[in-house]
Design goal:
The protein contains 20 helices and 14 strands. It is an alpha/beta fold and about 475 residues long. The protein folds into two domains: about 140 residues, 3-Layer(aba) Sandwich (Rossmann fold); about 300 residues, TIM Barrel (Alpha-Beta Barrel). It holds the Pfam family B12-binding.
């Protein structure tokens, strides 16, 4: 059987002028995982449209397309093309699960929810000549997961070829998150066995790893055992965690000992009232400053995530957020305009209130306002979002953040990481077009390691800081891999 797997490019990643490195970070692990279930005799190709063109002249028997909201239009174009050529077309992922009827108009088979249980059933049905038009996930387990087909991935095209996912979902229930819709009908957070996760890590070459899990620290027992097993492997790794998990005594220390050097943290907002409104319970009554100090004391860089446009935000929120983040010495920041994705509680609430402006999915990109804000105009929200990015990454603010580090090596690491991420996008474009993004990996490893330094906390034997008081104010891998950070 000739099988073609496609990850269509997100609308915001298809600019003809330059290609930000963020869209060439991670290979499509979800599709590569599904490929592991195919028979050895099947001919399979995997195309990631973020880094290569889709050859539409071929004639596969089976086409599998992973759909995000801002790639839906492109995904449907490809699906219609291959259906017209006689291929059996499968669609799955976050957007398909949220709007199955929309997706079904462009597919022979759709998948709702994670695919570890439904994909093998579909393959058996297909070979028996009776594939169903829809498969809904209900059994949630990672037992018996086959090795990811990394042989289908051209490592040279990605800055972070060693991305990995060892859990699915997240234990929290934030209103703006896709997770609850995607995992409806079964468990919304579950992990591999520690041995299976360590086995996958051991198969990866080199030093660097990036855990794409929505919340690697979500099961403290699993995470602690995983970090214990990784100790001594000589890895340098990055991941995502919550404010709550950073403050948990002992867990961060184990992570650092096993190689953690950078953490994506969802602070989301400097307005405490927004947290309750969005059911972000894990951030309420947490001292954000203490979180950053705890990470920095252990030599871990911080990528802070912030969402603008929640109902407590007014036009002052942009400057206040940037000033706070720069003052805290956060190395990198990711800003988003709040986006009510279909299938989420946020979308249902906004739709009921008549606040959804349109349903042009191409514009649901967290950079465009698609709802009526409560305390500012749509123009103020969009302009403030872009202004926050410009201001945070101004050289003077990068220098201010770097100056907060106590050592010259720490200052250099901060400047190199923040500046390299946002100030050299034209240079990244040249590297990406030359298919050499992976050649920059040694530089990333050098920056993450502090140019050879050990973490500050490890050198000094500094004790863990205690949780503070009040605040200052995310994969599922299947047909639905979640995040391009």
């Amino acid at each position: 059987m000739r099988v073609k797997m496609i990850l269509p490019a997100l609308t915001e990643a298809s600019s003809p002028f330059f290609r930000p490195i963020k869209y060439s970070l991670f290979p499509p692990l979800g599709l590569a995982t599904l490929a592991g279930y195919l028979d050895p005799g099947d001919e399979v190709t995997l195309t990631d449209e973020h880094v290569q063109k889709v050859d539409v002249s071929d004639e596969p028997d089976l086409v599998v397309i992973q759909v995000y909201i801002t790639s839906a239009r492109r995904a449907y174009e490809l699906a219609d093309h291959y259906r017209a050529k006689g291929a059996h077309v499968c669609l799955g992922g976050l957007h398909v699960t949220s709007l199955p009827d929309e997706a079904a108009a462009h597919a022979d088979t759709i998948f709702c929810g994670p695919g570890e249980d439904t994909w093998p059933r579909f393959l058996a049905d297909l070979r028996a000549g009776r594939p169903a038009p829809r498969y809904d996930s209900s059994e949630r387990t990672l037992a018996g997961l086959p090795p990811v087909r990394r042989d289908l991935i051209d490592r040279r095209r990605y800055l972070v070829p060693n991305s990995i996912v060892v859990s699915r979902g997240c234990p929290h229930v934030c209103d703006f998150c896709y997770k609850e819709a995607f995992f409806e009908g079964g468990k919304s957070f579950y992990t591999q066995t520690v041995d299976a996760a360590l086995g996958e890590i051991d198969r990866l070459p080199g030093r660097h790893l990036y855990f794409l899990d929505d919340h690697l620290f979500g099961n403290a027992r699993f995470a602690g055992a995983l970090f214990d097993g990784m100790r001594g492997m000589g890895r340098l790794w990055q991941a995502a965690g919550t404010v709550q998990s950073v403050l948990r005594p002992g867990l961060l220390e184990k992570a650092v000992e096993s190689g953690l050097r950078s953490l994506f943290v969802g602070f989301e907002t400097v307005n405490a009232g927004n947290l309750k409104e969005q059911r972000k319970w894990q951030n309420i009554d947490r001292d954000y400053g203490q979180v950053i100090r705890r990470l920095h004391d252990h030599g871990v860089m911080v990528n802070g995530s912030f969402v603008f446009g929640m109902d407590q935000d007014d036009p002052s929120v942009f400057e206040r957020t940037v000033e706070w983040a720069v003052g805290q010495g956060i190395e990198t920041a990711t800003f988003h305009i709040m986006t009510p994705y279909p299938g989420t509680r946020l979308y249902a609430r906004m739709e009921k209130a008549g606040r959804i402006l349109h349903r042009d999915w191409d514009r649901y990109d967290t950079r465009t306002v698609v709802f009526k804000p409560a305390r500012m105009t749509a123009t103020q929200l969009e302009d403030g979002y872009w202004r926050a990015y410009r201001n945070f990454y101004r050289w003077r603010n990068i220098a201010r953040g770097a100056a907060s580090k106590p050592t010259l090596r720490g200052k250099a690491r901060h400047a190199a990481y923040a500046g390299g991420w946002k100030k050299f996008e034209p240079a990244w474009d040249v590297v990406i077009r030359a298919k050499r993004a992976g050649a920059a990996l040694p530089l990333l490893e050098s920056v993450l390691s502090g140019f050879g330094a050990r973490p500050a906390g490890a050198r000094a034997g500094r004790p863990a800081a205690a949780p503070g008081e009040r605040p200052a104010g995310d994969t599922p891998v299947t047909i639905a891999e979640t995040r391009l950070s």
